[in-house]
Please model this.
Amino acid sequence: MKKYLLKTSEGLSGRIMKAAGETTGVICAALDLEVAGAAIAVSFNGRAPQYFGKSNREEILGAMKSLAGVGNRVSCLQEACGFGYGFHRELQAVGVESLVAAPEALNGRRKTDKRDVGKLCLLLVDYVVRDHRNVFKVVRAPSPEQERRRALWRQRSQLLKTRNVLAGHGRGLLQNFGHYLVPERWWGARIWPKLTAGLDSWIVEMLDSHRKIILQIEARMDQLEENARNKPAPLIEEPLVRGLGERARAQMRAEVLDWHRFSNRSQIGSFIGCCPSEYSSAGSRKLGSIDRMGNKRLRCMLVEAVWRLHQWNQGWRGFQKFHHVLGPGVKTGAAAKKKAVVACARLLAIDLWRIETGQMKPGDVGLILADASASLPRAKLSAMARG
Model:
């Protein structure tokens, strides 16, 4: 693309130094990444940002390397986007202080690349020059191995959604033509012959096309799970919790990257987006629903895990705290149960953080191990849930 072609990387670095008018200093460069390159704005020693147009990645990388090589402190900032962390790692490799920020709305209704990258550069100046560490959220860049492992689990989740859509298409086709009692996993090897015995041939032909795709998807899902488990070693060595199996724990570990990155429970709640929204002024304080400004995938995993624990591990402390909503035999509305489950998801994330970092054991919060819970009667589990 012609709009990304500059003369040379030396030309870009020369333009920046010419605009700076000084020999060395602190250079803050903000990048708005696109497919073919990036828009760039630069501030020198905390001055107002200057827009330098667009360039491709190779020229930007060469320019930043040249600027860092003559004694400048070069800091670059880019938003987390769909282009991965490759360019971030390349900048770090040439001696540049590279940061990745969580995306957020920067300029209201007037959005251009020039305005966005200029505002991003101002935030970087506040962060680097004035040491204001809360002007944006720094995204933790995963290592290449962590990124590969996370990609395996994420692709498995995407394939699972696709399989469910195809399964729903087949179920809808059957019900649309009078076959209302459709069994679960109607495409399975044991159910399929019985299902197709009384169907018209044209319906069987339509279902069979979906079935073949579903079987291929499930085979790929199994392969992805096996690859994720065996890189670089088995993921779960400790005893498993009933209702929270190896697959769920492995997926959560892949999303978190490293449980030791958190130092307190508030950071956990912020990471999963389960902190309450707040509107406070003067002496009044109003808390609302959760802000959802965190990892959506991990939040969904935790909510699903809470529902499973509610069936298989009712002695957990979260259900004791919300016994008036989630206790056995309690009749409450669906909205109250959903709110309680979301609150339990935050508690579960905190408990998993403490368990994964060795601060406590599952039994300390009422989580029964899979091998021990098999011998406990249901009456005992209900008694534990009541506390």
Observations:
- Confidence is low (pLDDT under 50) at residues 373-387.
